[in-house]
Amino acid sequence: MPLPRLVPAEDHVAVQSTSFATDALGRFVANTWEEATSSGLFSAVVIGAGAYGAYCAVQIRRVHPDARVLVLDAGSLLVGEHVQNLGAMGLNVPSPIMPSADPGTARELVWGIPWRGNVEFPGLAYCLGGKSIYWGGWCPRLTASDLAAWPAATRAWLATHYSLVESETGVVPATDFIFGDLQAALLPAVTAAAAGVPGLTGVEALPLAVQGAAPVSGLFSFDKYSSLPLLADAIRRDVRASHRSDTARKLFLAPRAHVVALHTSGGTVHTIELDVAGARKFLGIAPGCQVVLAASAIESTRLALHSFPTPLMGRNLMAHVRTDFAVRIARSALPSSPARCRPPRCSYAARPRPGGSTCSSPRQPAGRTPTTCCSA
Ligand SMILES: Cc1cc2nc3c(=O)[nH]c(=O)nc-3n(C[C@H](O)[C@H](O)[C@H](O)COP(=O)(O)OP(=O)(O)OC[C@H]3O[C@@H](n4cnc5c(N)ncnc54)[C@H](O)[C@@H]3O)c2cc1C
């Protein structure tokens, strides 16, 4: 049943409560537009607090400790980490639709399509963390040939920092839960078979970001593919270091701030035009302030094309290339596959597979049944 809207009151509270929730996390990491923009000038403005924008903001602060950074996001706080860790909460991804059929209102609470393309698409998740809150299961490293066309500075940085980024974004350690006896048997067999497949350049164990070592198997890394926990942590550190003085703060996150256009002069952005909770705002930025477009690949390109088109911009846009296929392999084809599972690596699910053996573990969560790990 629809609820009455909350009516803004004259008095102010530190943390707001609704009928069902206390907005503590939102208040602890985010600031209102007025709070953020009246605090002083910024050295960098990051547009978008998805996986890329959130990580970028944290990184700017690390490399330039004196920099003042403002992160703007069109969405608001939905959850603080990956949805898959939170059970069946009803936070769904809508079905892909033709952008021309976009109803123009949020689907599944936060999803919308801000462009008019000719392929079906689920759209963008307008929430802090962006799509990374919902998606991200695997992330193989880019190869040297993948990176060949990237800027030299990026290549050089990744050469020494790739492992750190993978670790901080939950990409590694990978598959410590699901890489078991079956994968150990499959990998050499597939590698041997691959030698006869033209065009296949390599075989790797799937670098899935599913972890299970602690506290129980089956959990994803808490920062799995989402930099939102990193950004929240950086903001809380900044709040503590500044003794809660906004003018001393160096990292702000302003939600419900949808960037509409960037106004430029001589190729340099001087004003950011936004829709902030339904009101048109203009944020003048200081000369030298860096503006980072991190509103997802297509939306960032759309914004740039709208604000300062260049002849090559948008000509080589690529998003998400992956092909999945399923194969069935007879158990007899894997003679070295052990018949029994290793007890410490079992997982948990609602029901055990009928007729199979089950594993027990002292870490079994209350109310959950151990799954079958393998059947002999
Ligand atoms: C079906 C599917 C499966 C995927 N699986 C994987 C996978 O297994 N592994 C993997 O690595 N990746 C995967 N991805 C890709 C991954 O989800 C994205 O590449 C990544 O989350 C993109 O992060 P981002 O920060 O660039 O963009 P987003 O996550 O889209 O974040 C953009 C942010 O910008 C904000 N924003 C948008 N427009 C504006 C605006 N105008 N003004 C202000 N703020 C704005 C949004 O609210 C959002 O918070 C998958 C994607 C899909 C669609």
Distance between the termini: 51 Å
Side-by-side strand order of the widest sheet: 5-2-1-9
> What are the secondary-structure elements, in order, as H or E?
HHEHEEEHHHHEEEEEHEE
- Rg value: 24 Å
Protein structure class: alpha/beta
What does this structure look like?
The chain has helices spanning 24-29, 33-37, 51-63, 144-147, 152-168, 181-194, 228-241, 297-307, and strands spanning 44-47, 69-72, 111-112, 124-125, 251-254, 257-265, 268-276, 279-284, 290-293, 348-349, 369-370. The chain has a domain at 24-138 and 224-307: 3-Layer(bba) Sandwich (FAD/NAD(P)-binding domain), CATH 3.50.50.60. Helix 3 (51-63) runs parallel beside helix 7. It is of the alpha/beta class and 376 residues long. A 4-stranded parallel sheet has the order 5-2-1-9. The model is unreliable at 341-376 (pLDDT under 50). It contains 8 helices and 11 strands. The chain is globular. The structure holds flavin-adenine dinucleotide (FAD).
